[in-house]
């Protein structure tokens, strides 16, 4: 009996010294024993609460749950910790965390609990292991039971979210938005099942109602038996991270847009842009316009930079080699001729080279910008031809006026002389005088191209058929056959049909002269962009070299032995007055094609 009393006294001493609430309840929930921690928490003497029902102190809304989980728990299953509200003697409610419960042989219930309601910092349980877990981090943290109710929060939590302990302890965390509640419960269940921490990104709500992105690390807290009975949630505010990420994404988007814009520009402009590394002796970048100009795949240009030199015109090769292969500290430019394809089609390039220096001051790279100036050169050539035509026209005006009057007198007297003498030489003299008169008339056409022009809408196909009927006998005489391929949908052309006939007859005669052994002439009509009529005269003659082709239309230049070049000059002038153009293409040994392009209407009509 003495030993029993000693054991009871020792047990009571340990119970009163413990920092954890210890209770002994009967099967109805009456308090049979409460240690000093519980008495101090309730601020009531021992005699007042002994044999009182525990449910006298439990919040009305929590009584049923406490009855089920504390008095009626299944002894064969581990006790499930939970929280409930507890009314103190002052009428205020605190929160208890029911940690453990076990039934005795007599059917009574031994209970361990811990107060999780601190009214001020002086009352915080610095020695509490839950307090240590929650506050042993600078991140906002809180502990919840398996139902998601908050057990404890740290100072960082209060600072970030604005919620105080009294606002959240014992409740489902108010920082979890309604739309995220199910996700939150699922995460707690997942931690309980896997017994491993998980980290996920979600959103949380501050007391002022603002939501923001967070990263949550949810870790299990174990009992001594190894069972998970609480969870520790540590959160990181990702607002700055996402703002930085958004800023980086925006900057990357701007950079990508600029790069795309630059790429679109370099990929689509006609200028040829390249970056050449002098040390590596290779291209670092070549714009697609190179491929379009040289008709060579970019891959070959990357593999063999020398292709650029291989395509140079032989007469310009030496100058281009010196230009490209001798580095200088200054920007330099050069215009040179190139061969655009295997057929030797000529072209002109204007290349500008800008040096790029390394940090040590040595030139390491070149930026090359080349422009296709072929059309510009052709226009310059055409302008020079027009200038020559103008000069010849002025000369023709003077000659025609000075020669025509005495020529008329001589011709008239020769006709009278022929009638009186009937001399056989007078016919020859008159024939040559008529030829001189014909040449003077050509001079006058060059001098006054707009004289006696009557422009009207004409069916170009009908005009060409009349020309073919007129020229066919002469063509057959030289073994030449004329073939017609007309576009019958060709609109009417505003022109002076007599002058157009003069041009086409001249071109057909030139084609006949180019085929001394006979051949075929192909006369074709068509439309260009529904705005212009194209008349093509193609022969099967000997063709011409590039140099001779470029000189066509110059005064007094002709491929014929006795030609003056005035006929083709007259053609150029007539078509120019019709606001059109004449283009020639020729391949030696295959023939020449002349294309007359006329607008359907004139701007000054």
From TrEMBL:
Lineage, highest ranks first: Bacteria, Bacillati, Bacillota, Bacilli, Bacillales
Molecular function, one GO term: ATP binding
InterPro entries in the record: HATPase_C_sf, HATPase_dom, His_kinase_dom, HisK_dim/P_dom, HisK_dim/P_sf, PAC, PAS, PAS-assoc_C
Residue span(s) of domain PAC: 196-250, 332-385
This protein's name: histidine kinase
UniProt keyword Membrane, yes or no: no
Enzyme's top EC category: transferase
Catalytic activity: ATP + protein L-histidine = ADP + protein N-phospho-L-histidine
The enzyme's E.C. designation: 2.7.13.3
CDD domains in alphabetical order: HisKA, PAS
């Amino acid at each position: 009996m003495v030993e029993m009393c000693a054991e009871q006294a020792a047990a009571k001493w340990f119970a009163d010294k413990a920092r954890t609430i210890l209770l002994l309840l009967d099967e109805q929930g009456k308090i049979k024993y409460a240690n000093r921690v519980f008495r101090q928490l309730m601020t009531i003497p021992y005699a007042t609460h002994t044999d009182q029902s525990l449910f006298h102190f439990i919040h009305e809304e929590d009584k049923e749950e406490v009855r089920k989980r504390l008095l009626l728990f299944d002894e064969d299953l581990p006790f499930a910790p939970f929280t409930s509200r507890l009314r103190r003697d002052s009428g205020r409610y605190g929160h208890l965390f029911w940690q453990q419960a076990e039934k005795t042989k007599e059917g009574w219930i031994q209970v361990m609990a811990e107060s999780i309601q601190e009214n001020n910092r002086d009352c915080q349980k610095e020695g509490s292991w839950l307090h240590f877990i929650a506050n042993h981090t600078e991140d906002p943290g809180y502990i919840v039971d398996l139902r998601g109710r908050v057990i404890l929060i740290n100072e960082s939590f209060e600072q970030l979210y604005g919620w105080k302990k009294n606002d959240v302890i014992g409740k489902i965390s108010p920082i979890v938005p309604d739309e995220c509640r199910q996700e939150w419960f699922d995460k707690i269940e997942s931690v309980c099942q896997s017994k491993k921490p998980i980290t996920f990104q979600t959103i949380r709500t501050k007391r002022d109602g603002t939501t923001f992105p967070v990263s949550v690390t949810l870790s299990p807290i174990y009992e001594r038996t190894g069972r998970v009975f609480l969870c520790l949630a540590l959160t990181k505010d990702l607002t700055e991270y996402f703002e930085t990420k958004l800023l980086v994404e925006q900057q990357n988007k701007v950079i990508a847009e600029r790069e795309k814009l630059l790429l679109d520009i370099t990929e689509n402009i006609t200028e040829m842009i390249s970056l050449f590394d002098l040390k590596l002796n290779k291209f670092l970048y070549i714009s697609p316009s190179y491929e379009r100009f040289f008709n060579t795949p970019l891959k070959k240009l990357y593999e063999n930079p020398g292709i650029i030199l291989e395509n140079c015109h032989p007469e310009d090769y030496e100058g281009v080699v010196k230009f490209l292969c001798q580095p200088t500290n200054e920007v330099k430019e050069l215009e040179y001729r190139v061969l655009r394809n295997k057929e030797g089609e000529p072209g002109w390039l204007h290349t500008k080279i800008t040096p790029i220096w390394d940090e040590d001051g040595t030139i390491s790279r070149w930026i090359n910008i080349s422009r296709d100036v072929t059309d510009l050169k052709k226009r310059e050539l055409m302008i020079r031809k027009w200038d020559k035509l103008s000069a010849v026209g002025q000369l023709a005006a003077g000659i025609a006026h000075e020669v025509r009057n005495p020529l008329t007198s001589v011709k008239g007297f020769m006709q009278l002389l022929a009638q009186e003498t009937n001399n056989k030489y007078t016919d020859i003299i008159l024939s040559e005088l008529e030829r001189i008169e014909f040449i003077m008339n050509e001079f006058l056409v060059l001098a006054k191209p707009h004289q006696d022009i009557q422009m009207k809408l004409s069916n170009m196909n009908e005009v060409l058929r009349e020309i073919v009927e007129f020229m066919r006998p002469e063509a057959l005489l030289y073994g030449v056959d004329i073939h017609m391929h007309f576009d019958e949908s060709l609109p009417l052309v505003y022109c002076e049909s007599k002058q157009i006939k003069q041009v086409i007859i001249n071109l057909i005669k030139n084609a006949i002269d180019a085929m001394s052994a006979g051949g075929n002439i192909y006369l074709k009509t068509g439309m260009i962009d529904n705005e212009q009529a194209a008349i093509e005269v193609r022969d099967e003659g000997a063709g011409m070299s590039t140099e001779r082709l470029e000189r066509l239309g110059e005064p007094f230049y002709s491929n014929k032995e006795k030609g003056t070049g005035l006929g083709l000059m007259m053609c150029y002038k007539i078509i120019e007055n019709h606001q059109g153009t004449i283009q020639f293409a020729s391949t030696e040994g295959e023939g020449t094609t002349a294309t007359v392009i006329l607008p359907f209407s004139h701007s000054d009509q």
